[in-house]
Amino acid sequence: MKCLACETYEDQPQEFTFQDATIHKLKDFDEMKILVCPNCGLGVVNQQIDATALTDYYNSTYGGKTKKFALSDMGNPLGTHSIDFRSLSQIALITNFLELDESRAILEIGSGKGDFYIALKNLGINSKYITFEPQKEAQQKLRHLGIETINKSFEPDDLAEREEQYDLIVMSHSLEHFHPDYVEKTISAINRMLKPGGYFFCEVPNADLSQYPNAGERVVPHLTFFSTRSLNHLLSRNNFKINFLKTCGNLQADKNANEDRKRSNARGMYEFREDPDNERILRNVYYDNYLEEQSRKAFRKNKLLKLFVTILGERISKRIFDLIGKMRRASVEDALSTEYFRYRDKAEFIRLLARKG
Prior knowledge:
Layout: E1 14-17, E2 25-26, H1 28-31, E3 33-36, E4 43-45, H2 51-60, H3 65-73, H4 85-94, E5 105-109, H5 115-122, E6 128-132, H6 136-145, E7 148-150, E8 166-172, H7 180-193, E9 194-205, E10 224-225, H8 228-237, E11 240-251, H9 257-266, E12 272-275, E13 278-284, H10 285-312, H11 314-328, H12 332-336, E14 347-356
Parallel strand pairs: 5-6, 5-8, 6-7, 8-9
Antiparallel strand pairs: 1-3, 2-13, 3-4, 4-10, 9-14, 11-14, 12-13
């Protein structure tokens, strides 16, 4: 096998299976293995996955963080006042290298429910912003926020008419979802879409499986597993100058996926049934029940909010919501104390900021 990052050859790469999933999954993941380069730590799946099936899975079924919270956030007038600490720390890093103002154009690939955009707005940053986002629940939330959204997964061919259009391109926990065959093509396309001197910000799990086999990073539906070394190789080879490449968060060595699995198994979180509408998908029963409960809670909360607005009127209600939102906003000290501002070696997230060469 030739590593797509460091380009070395390895006849016997280290092999891993995917860990049990607590969300819905494609059956393909039960058969796939992860092959890890011993030289740079890059992990890749060992077989192709049907592109149409994968697209349908992301469009309708995938249950990451967005699906868990999109329903409860929808229509919540307090939601736009909260700032996601991860996004806040990412923007703090980026603005050390690039001033963000209304003259800047930002493209985000895989924005989820819009945390990065909301953080920008709450910080008074009014750069032009557009996103690619395939998840239906996320698309609803993005429309609610008034974000210009391309309702699909990004593909390298999408760079047509976008060459040298953006000052900043952001991928936060998105690149690991790309099949290894498309990772380098995607990085190359990003370089071409950036203006001269533009920046690419990327955050991915620190998934060097040979170093951290029990950190819980063999996650469905990730398809590529990055180390700092492999990202360095990939970006440097594709006309990027790396300005920042470090890890942040909790230490990988402190995590214990085996113990987590025992607890999850005791709660019945690994029971699956075939999707009645798509035989290639296995639905997690526990997760389905969880989403149902979240939907009921969201319905009750939104019903109360609408009643509140009906009684007090839109103008007064908006003032009250604005005041409550500001009161709920975390302090600077709270933000700075989170793991997202803690940079150290061998931590759980890799952050990279690279300038177009």
